[in-house]
Amino acid sequence: ARLDGLAVARDLTDPAQAATAVAETAERLGPPEILVNAAGNRFTTERAESEPLAAIERTLALNLVAPMLLSQAVFPHMRAVGRGSIVNVSSISGRVGVPGIPQASYAASKAGLSGLTAELAVQWGRHAIRVNTVAPGFFRSDITGELYDSDRGAAYLRRNIALPVEAAAEDMVGAITWLAGDAARYVTGQTVVVDGGWTAR
After folding, report:
1. Rounded Cα–Cα distance for residues 196 and 21 (Å)
2. Does 106 participate in catalysis according to the annotation?
3. Is residue 198 within 8 Å of residue 160, measured between CB atoms?
4. Dist. CA 182–CA 170, nearest whole Å
5. Which entry of 106, 148, 156, 186 is annotated as an active-site residue?
6. Alpha-carbon 181 to chain mean position
7. Are 121 and 132 spatial neighbours (Cβ–Cβ below 8 Å)?
8. 3 state SS of 46
9. For the chain, domain boundaries
10. Residue 70 — φ and ψ, nearest 5°?
């Protein structure tokens, strides 16, 4: 209501529900020209050798398969209007290993997003559809709250992040808005890292 928008609730781990989300949105608001694939999670904290298959499949379904299906669903709308921008939200875990935080399937799914981004950018560029990825580093969220709230975790973050500020989800807004809008009209197939300098070490 605050945004004068439309909320369409779906379980994105269910392929059928993911497809209907775009259909309902297009029917009620018109053809989408922007898609931000921001949903993501990890469903196990086990080390790689012990990750349960069910958790691996659920992680890949939400973090990689759902963005692919949603992108497929918006494609005909974007092609029809002659433009579009897809922004995938990945993670630095898709670029570098993160010591002490086991997340093999999560990292694989996020690395897969960068591969998907590059491929869709090449395939759909002729339709003036741009596809990019934002790869955030650590910021306070439901997933990372315990890390930030423990003395040891907070010290770990301070040691590894170059900037002396605590990141928040809002710090990704600028990068996502830039990639979604006309200011980045000649940018496609890229992964933009927003991590306070973590991967610059």
Report:
1. 34
2. yes
3. yes
4. 20
5. 106
6. 17
7. yes
8. coil
9. 15-196
10. -65, -35
Pick the CATH number of 15-196 from 3.40.50.720, 3.30.70.270, 3.20.20.10, 3.20.20.140: 3.40.50.720
Amino acid letter, residue 108 = A
Could you read off the pLDDT of 89-123 as tens digits, one per residue? 999 888 888 777 768 899 999 999 999 999 999 99
CA atoms within 13 A on the CB side of 1: 0
CA distance linking residue 124 with residue 127, whole number of Å: 5
In whole angstroms, what is the distance from residue 102 CA to residue 55 CA? 13
CA distance to 10, 19, 34, 39, 107, per residue, from 81 (Å): 25, 19, 12, 26, 34
At residue 173, φ and ψ (nearest 5 deg) are: -60, -45
Tokens 């496609």 map to which residue? 188
- pTM of the full structure: 0.91
Q: Whole-angstrom Cα distance, residue 95 to residue 103?
A: 13
Cα gap 158→164, rounded to integer Å: 7
What Å distances lie between residue 139 and 64, 104, 153, 170, 177, CA to CA? Answer: 21, 19, 12, 9, 18
For 130, residues 6+ apart whose C-beta sits below 8 A from its C-beta are 84, 85, 86, 121, 179, 184, 185, 187, 188
pLDDT digits (tens, 9 = 90+) for 3-26: 888 999 999 999 888 879 999 999
Answer yes or no: are the C-beta atoms of 124 and 75 closer than 8 Å: yes
